[in-house]
Known about the structure:
7-stranded parallel β-sheet; alpha/beta; 306 residues; Rossmann fold
Amino acid sequence: MRIIVTGASGPIGVPLIYECIKRKIEVLAIVRKHSPRVKNIPQNSLVQVRDCGIENIFSLEKEAKDKYDAIIHLAWTHTKGEDRKNSLLQVKNIELSLSVAEFARKIGCEVFVGAGSQSEYGILNGIASEETPVNPWEAYGMAKLASGQLILNHLHNYGMRACWVRIFSTYGPFENEYTFISYLIRTLMEENVPNLTQGMQVWDYLYIEDAVNALILLATDKNADGVYCLGGSNPRSVKKYVEAIRDIVRPGYELPFGNIPYGTRQSMHLEADITKIKHDVGFYPQIDFEEGIKRLYRWYKGEYSF
Length: 306
C-alpha cells in the first residue's frame, strides 16, 4: 500500500504517518513550504516529504503517476478565530481541495479520502448521521460541506471511489494548543485556573489513534464510499470529561464550573452516529477517554511517544 497525505505535518497527519509506518505503508507527505511543524513528521525509509504545498501539488504528477493507491487529504488553511468566518479565505480551501481530488484521479489513485467536519451540520443538538440535515453557520463549515459535495460528485462521475469523513472532536498528541483538551491539560499542569462553562454540553471525543485507524480503513476497504460520520460513540457531558481530566492531571482540584458563560452559538449535543462506518469497514473505537488522556498527559510530560 502506498498513499499520499496532504496536511502531513498537522495534528491528524503526523499520527496518521506514525500508524502507516507501523503497518508498512509507504507515504508521500505533502507539507506547506517552510512549515515549522515538519519536524514532527517521523524520519523513516517509508516516508518521503515534499514541501510544495497543495497549491503546487501538480508539480508531483510525473513523480506520482501510477505509483500511489490513495490520497488522504487533511490540508486546510485558516482554521481558527475570525478566519473561520471569512468567506474569501475559506473559498480558497474549496478550490485547493478540488485540485487535490483531480490530482488523485489523474495519477491513478483508487480512492480519495477527505477530512470533513462536524461544523458542516451547524448548530447541533443531538445525534448526527450522514442523513442529518446540514446547515453550517460559518464559512469554515460551509466550505467543508461544499468541498465534500463537489469532490464526491466530481470523482464519482469518473467512477472513482471517494470518502468524505465528517470528523467530530478528536484529541491526542500533536493537537493544536487552542483545542479545549489541550488548553485544559496545560492549564491544570501549570496549576492555573481554567475557564469553564457549567459543562452541561454533551460531546463525543475520539482519540487520535482511533481516528487515523478509521481513515486507513476507509482508504483500504473497497466497500467504503461516500460520506461518513466519525466520532467516539461514547458521549458524555463536558463536565464529566473535565472531571476525568482533572482526576488524572490534578487530582483533588476544585473545578470552577460556570466561571464563563456558554457561547452565543453553543451546540448542547454533538454526537456522531457511526453506524455506517462500523458497517462498511468494521471500525470500532478501541481507546477509552481515560486511557487516551493518560497517554496525552504523558506525552505533554515527555514520557510517551507513538
